[in-house]
Amino acid sequence: MSFAESLAQPIRILHVDDQSDFTELTATYLKRNDDSFSIVTATSANEGLELLEQMDFDCIISDYDMPRKTGIEFLRPVRDVYPNLPFICCAA
Questions:
Q1: pTM score, two decimals?
Q2: pLDDT digits (tens, 9 = 90+) for 22-57
Q3: CATH label of the domain that carries residue 27
Q4: Whether residue 2 has pLDDT greater than 80
Q5: Residue 85 in 3-state DSSP?
Q6: C-beta contacts of 76-80 below 8 A and 24+ residues apart
Q7: Number of domains the chain is built from
Q8: Distance CA 76, CA 33 (A)
């Protein structure tokens, strides 16, 4: 793939947050600011891990404070398989 072709590809983001209203709002905001973003959302760390098995992503944005698994607990299995995948964990 050439550099020009890579620029034409969407930036695939996995956004994981247990509050679905927040993931929808964030996806809308990101797409409004840059239409090259393609956002897939998950409402749990386990759902996020399932999506990682099915799709390729350029980065992950994860809530820190989620039930059952925190964002850091989600990061650990991600790092095992994708050690270089950018991962942003934030507390809202």
A1: 0.86
A2: 888 888 888 888 888 999 999 999 999 999 999 999
A3: 3.40.50.2300
A4: no
A5: coil
A6: 77/49, 78/49, 78/52
A7: 1
A8: 30
